[in-house]
Design brief:
Strand order of the largest sheet of chain A: 5-2-1-9-20
Largest interface: A-B, 87 and 86 residues
Distance between the termini of chain A: 80 Å
Strand content of chain A: 15-25%
Structural class of chain A: alpha/beta
Helix content of chain A: 25-40%
Number of strands of chain A: 26
Number of domains of chain A: 2
Oligomer: homodimer
Shape of chain A: globular
CATH class of the largest domain in chain A: Alpha Beta
């Protein structure tokens, strides 16, 4: 690596960053002024602000409100190129990543930040009946299903005089599950009040299933209990110690009980991106790469693994798979590469825990604050804090404005701005699906509207 | 129909409106205070502001910016119900429409406003290679293709050192074709200037093909010539008198010339919704129902056909398939039903032509003004007029605000807010597709970024 410190910079070292999420993008930004050539590879053209993805799923925000083209974020960073492609292989000996489109990319430093995806614990056959929330497409699909359930119920009432119970089941009581359940309860009870003539959306049931003994299991016990209580106030039925044993079209099985569900959402398991295993370094049960304080996998000092893909323990705890560790790791990688270039020792990574928070519906949240003071807060104050922080950390001033405007509108007028159903107009397991089609028009007596 | 004027209103007449576009929605609104039961049937849950759909396709606006749930628009209109369903048959003798989900809806008045869709003139096999613009899904697909073309070109440059010429072909020089072509030229030349390292988006070619001898054929000749000239200034190659004879993956055939095209868009033909033919009344060549001054098809006084589905000639001209006639027809139907209920004669429909306009790129437009004064205007002034009118007519105050904000941001910062690629990441005919996959990683020498 003689060329690394070559003062002529004729051949600057190549840093390949795989993954344009919080970790990868912050690593790229940190490298802006260094004498390196940066390549950010992502199979998507956009970075999304994951903490607000559930609001896209529940029609509060538009996809574009929380997304930004990676290319645009880095447009003025002249040492950086962005490649929309997928990494399908890593050759650590040859320092090369193989791309789906056929080519290979040589690197001097590899930054792997491809995150995690959902896991159905080996039951991938549940996926069509219980979508999870990781991408914009996922959010649009969840939005489609939730909104469609109400439309189909109204239609069924008009045409056949009955509708299946509007049960929404959320599997998994972590932050995503809690936020989804709270938001569904909100939209059903508050935002659709005047929209239907034959069904009462407020009579929907939202059922949150959690296998462990408490929701928000990674939070302190008092906050977890407050969240449980707050969900109850919103009308969400929280069932802890409840293991899901089967999911099919229109139902969820828990032990010997079968719950009818017009929409089931999956917020239970995550697993690491498959790229982690390609390094040949030790990984944990979920495929996360074990890294040291320099974010290096065992024996690979030129490879950094960060964000949700990294398994790093500090103070006896594994760092959680949320935005803060990913952002800090991204910054830190840039600092370590700068140290290399300057011939200094790399600084060790220390996670600076500012806290963690989750919203529960319209006006409630729980927050474990670690900085600038330590506190457990909940209720309206926690919610305002959540609001402020999330607006502040949104990428791009335009998104900050548009999200702020959408929220003000949403909270004041009880109108959701993005109530769009696109794509297919059927729900798996919906009773209509069994015998659909125009053939029945003749069989049945025509019904009168408003009967 | 004795019950129509029943003072006790025990059995109010049922008005079934099929289609929640400009015509249908305005008809529904006009009936708000009348003693009728209104049912709006649409297979979509949302109404879209069609004149701005091309801005969704070119990533200026988000889908939700120009869409609103039909149900929400009519939420406080207590005599109206909304049904998300598809009409698959009409029994004019039995006064009943058959729904795809199996039931039938009885009507006393039927308002048919299902509009038009695109037509490939019998060449439906062209559709996969040349999407048209009618729905939100269409707009998202066009956005995907246009944005993806630039991403794939950049990738191909990095990995293989060349890329196919970035030719965008728009077929059809009507208002939609002109607006699409201008907007593509804009995004390529202005909005992506700093985003790529290996390709120059400004070197893209935008080719507009028009079979007749002029673009904007329905406009006065001087405006059509000005539009042609303005397109040229934007760098759009306008080819009139050019008949498309074939479209395939990556190419468009015109006579004996084959044009390579990374993206082809179809803005050439429209045909009426198939519902028009189900009435059994006379239709024109495109399936539009011939209606009289009361918007009735021949012999069907209880059926009204409006909007793009109607063929109505006044002053020797067929009314154009744009928003204004549809809106006015919608209002008029409500007035005619009110007249029926009051036992008065129905007023005849007279189209009040306020004019017509089309934008050409960022700062230019042509407008034929008929009211409040007669004029042909073009250039910046026409563009400002266009802007004002379109903001003013957007449904919903929230959309007015959000569109205005998006435009200000877009025009000042040269950043498009909705540059999202979702869904599939391939383009039909893209050369990479022929031999893709990781297998080639070994065959080819790994390339260096920034080489």
């Amino acid at each position: 690596m003689a060329n690394v410190t070559n003062p002529l910079r004729r051949q600057q070292p190549s840093v390949v960053i795989v993954g344009g999420g919080f970790a990868g993008l912050n690593a790229a930004k940190g490298l802006a002024k260094l004498p390196v050539r940066v390549t950010v590879v992502d199979r998507r053209n956009h970075n999304i602000f994951q903490p607000l993805l559930y609001q896209v799923a529940l029609a509060v925000l538009s996809p574009a409100n929380i997304a930004q083209p990676i290319r645009t974020v880095l447009r003025h960073q002249r040492n950086t190129q962005v490649l929309m492609d997928e990494v399908v292989g890593i050759d650590v000996a040859g320092r090369c990543v193989a791309l789906a489109s056929g080519a290979g990319l040589l690197y001097d430093y590899l930054v792997l930040a491809t995150g995690a995806t959902h896991s159905y614990f080996g039951h991938d056959d549940w996926a069509p009946f219980a979508p999870a929330l990781k991408t914009i497409e996922d959010a649009i699909e969840i939005r489609r299903r939730v909104l469609l359930a109400f439309e189909l119920a109204e239609r069924q009432m008009v045409e056949h005089g009955w509708h299946p119970p509007l049960n929404f089941v959320v599997v998994g009581g972590g932050p995503t599950g809690v936020e989804l359940a709270g938001a569904i309860a909100d939209i059903a009870q508050l935002y659709m009040r005047h929209d239907f003539r034959h069904i009462d959306p407020a009579k929907s049931r939202v059922i949150l299933l959690e296998a462990s003994q408490q929701v928000l299991g990674t939070y302190p016990r008092d906050l977890s209990a407050k969240a449980h209580h707050a969900l109850g106030r919103l009308g969400v039925e929280v069932r802890v110690n409840t293991q899901v044993t089967g999911i099919g079209p229109g139902w969820v099985q828990t032990g010997d009980q079968r719950i009818n569900a017009v929409v089931t959402l999956w917020a239970a398991g995550v697993q690491a991106s498959p790229l982690g295993r390609m390094l040949g370094a030790p990984v944990d049960r979920r495929g996360c790469v074990l890294v040291d304080d320099h974010l290096n996998p065992q024996g690979l000092p030129k490879v950094f693994v960060l964000g949700d893909l990294a398994h790093l323990e500090q103070n006896g705890h594994q760092l959680p798979g949320v935005a803060q560790p990913a952002i800090q790791m991204g910054h830190h990688v840039a600092r370590m590469i700068a140290a290399d270039l300057a011939g200094r020792d790399r600084p060790a990574f220390r996670y600076f825990d500012k806290g963690d928070m989750a919203t529960i519906g319209r006006m409630d949240a729980v927050a474990k604050v670690e900085w600038p003071f330590k506190a457990h807060i909940s209720g309206f104050l926690a919610w305002i804090t959540w609001l402020t922080i999330h607006i502040f950390f949104l990428i791009g001033f335009r998104n900050r404005l548009s999200v702020f405007a959408a929220w003000v509108w949403n909270y004041i007028t009880f109108t959701r701005g993005a109530r769009l159903i696109t794509g297919d107009q059927r729900l798996p397991g919906w009773p209509d699906e069994v015998a659909p089609g125009p053939a029945r028009a003749e069989e049945e007596a025509p019904s009168n509207p408003f009967k």
